[in-house]
Design brief:
Elements (H helix, E strand, L loop, with lengths): L17 E3 L8 E7 L7 E2 L10 E7 L5 E6 L6 E6 L6 E3 L19 E11 L5 E8 L4 E6 L7 E3 L10 E8 L3 E7 L5 E6 L8 E4 L12 E8 L6 E7 L23 E7 L7 E7 L13 E4 L5 E6 L4 E6 L7 E5 L6 E9 L5 E8 L16 E9 L10 E4 L5 E2 L20 E4 L6 E7 L25 E9 L7
Antiparallel strand pairs: 1-2, 2-31, 3-7, 4-5, 5-6, 6-7, 8-9, 9-10, 10-11, 12-13, 13-14, 14-15, 16-17, 17-18, 18-19, 20-21, 21-22, 22-23, 24-25, 25-26, 26-27, 26-28, 29-30, 30-31
Length: 486
């Protein structure tokens, strides 16, 4: 969901080490936390220039174990990007992927809304993995490509074939030069555009919602896009109503209203490179008032081609898995504890059956309230869950707290229609290095810190828990279990 915010300059702070202990066998898992910079060339932690005002970030790792991440400054204010070459222990600020788009996209540039990031699974002619960053402009979708590890970017300001009303773009890469972007069009259909020339042109367009599910157009919440690098199958996930009769009771266009919710989780599967899709039900809750249309249902693919669907009912996080390329599914299985509240899930799959999942968590729980109305005593941190046998039904998850406090109180999940606190915005992310097997988490934080702040407007303790302190930070795993074998 798009957001508006003015660009500013910020100060830097390094947060304290955070970690947890797993039940059973004691294997220490730790995370180091720090803020990121928006001054190109600045490495964090370790510089007074480690500052940013960005939020709603994304992160991926390439086959060489290098992390790439992005975050948004808001519509019209551009996108931030970072790179880590040492397993996530330090991140260097890159030139903005869409800083040159002002002259190319009249009125809404340079980007800055709803960012996502992808890395190619195969090397380009220069021996690097292409990096792609998408960003919403409302008029279209910016897609920026780097063939040199983020040193330089080539912008395509019309990455959506259907220009006009676009929202919430996602991006995924295949091979050395194929990249696809998905988004909501003006009718709330889910469109998937693909490029065969590293994002220079997008010439292939298909609807992820097939004809038998056409009633879900206008009655769905889009999730992310993923591609299996071995089979080249494309997966687009979403939540939606489950029958045509529910159109009359659905929360129209994502607005929180109606007597039934998006109580079905779906996977749109393309086996022909994105030319057409067939939709499969991941899980349909028989209780029609349950809603999985919270930011966002998520899909990831492990090295063996197994799929994982992760979703939340606005209080707890669940997953389902598929071993036949998304046709049939097992689940749901609870990832988080049955107590407290957990929202905004994202996953990263590694070797076969190994899965990392992150979410914002609070010990506070009220079954009659949604997080939008939670009181200030709801204290939020980044939760991290790991399962090394995720293909085994009801297998055990180990869980950790990966960050200091990132927010207190209500968390608005209504996107651009939010009237309450939206400092955590709509999503964040996790990726794992295929070289170390460890995770790096990128998240939003609106807390004032005594020893340095990472937003220039966060001048006093009274600014905490407000947009004045909002910034993007990192939690990198430095020890513990791994989802990739070394």
């Amino acid at each position: 969901m798009a957001k508006l915010r003015w660009l500013a300059v910020a100060l830097c702070g390094v947060l304290l080490l955070a970690g947890g202990a797993a039940a059973g066998k004691k294997i220490k898992t730790h995370f180091v936390n720090f803020g990121l910079a928006q001054t190109p060339g600045t490495s964090c932690p370790g510089s007074s220039k480690c500052s940013n005002i960005a939020s709603e970030p994304a992160i991926r790792a390439d086959a060489a174990g290098e992390f790439f991440s992005s975050s948004e400054n808001g519509l019209g204010s551009g996108t931030e990007a970072w790179r880590s070459l040492d397993g996530g222990r330090h991140y260097t600020a890159l030139d903005s992927p869409n800083q040159g788009s002002t002259s190319n996209n009249s009125g809404f540039a340079p980007g800055g809304g709803d960012t996502d990031l992808a890395v190619a699974p195969a090397k380009n002619s220069s021996g690097h993995y292409n990096v792609y960053v998408s960003s919403l402009t409302l008029a279209n979708v910016d897609v920026s490509t780097s063939s040199d590890q983020g040193k330089t970017w080539q912008l395509n300001p019309v990455g959506a074939v259907l220009g006009g009303a676009d929202d919430r773009p996602w991006i995924a890469a295949d091979g050395a030069s194929k990249v696809c972007v998905s988004y909501h069009d003006g009718e709330q259909n889910i469109e998937v555009n693909c490029s065969a020339d590293a994002g220079s042109t997008f010439t292939q367009l298909a609807s992820a919602i097939d004809t038998s599910h056409a009633f879900q157009i206008g009655n769905n919440e889009i999730g992310n896009l993923a591609i299996d690098p071995k089979t080249h199958d494309i997966f687009q996930t979403y939540s939606a109503i489950t029958t045509s009769a529910e159109v009359a009771c659905a929360p129209q266009l994502g607005v929180s209203a109606g007597t039934c919710g998006y109580h079905g989780v779906y996977m749109a599967v393309s086996t022909d490179g994105g030319q057409s899709f067939t939709d499969h039900a991941v899980y349909v809750n028989k209780t029609a008032t349950v809603d999985y249309g919270h930011q966002f249902v998520n899909v990831s693919v492990d090295r063996a081609g197994n799929l994982y669907s992760v979703y939340t009912d606005d209080h707890h996080v669940y997953y389902s898995f598929s071993t036949d390329h998304g046709t049939t599914w097992h689940g749901p299985y609870l990832i988080t504890t049955a107590s407290g509240t957990q929202i905004f899930p994202w996953s990263s799959a590694g070797d076969a059956g190994k899965l990392d999942v992150v979410y914002y968590q609070t010990p506070y729980y009220d079954s009659k309230q949604i997080p939008d109305t939670y009181p200030d005593k709801a204290v939020w941190t980044v939760g991290f869950a790991q399962n090394l046998k995720a293909l085994k039904p009801s297998s055990k998850w180990i869980r950790f707290t990966a960050s200091p406090v990132v927010h207190k109180g209500a968390v608005c999940e209504s996107g651009a229609t939010c009237s309450g606190n939206r400092d955590l915005y709509d999503d964040f992310g996790v990726a794992a290095s295929p070289k170390t097997g460890f995770a790096s988490i990128i998240y939003s934080d609106d807390q004032w810190a005594k020893k340095g702040n990472t937003n220039p407007n966060c001048a006093a303790k009274s600014d905490t828990n407000s947009a004045n302190c909002d910034h993007t930070a990192i939690a990198t795993q430095t020890s513990g279990r791994r989802i990739y074998s070394r």
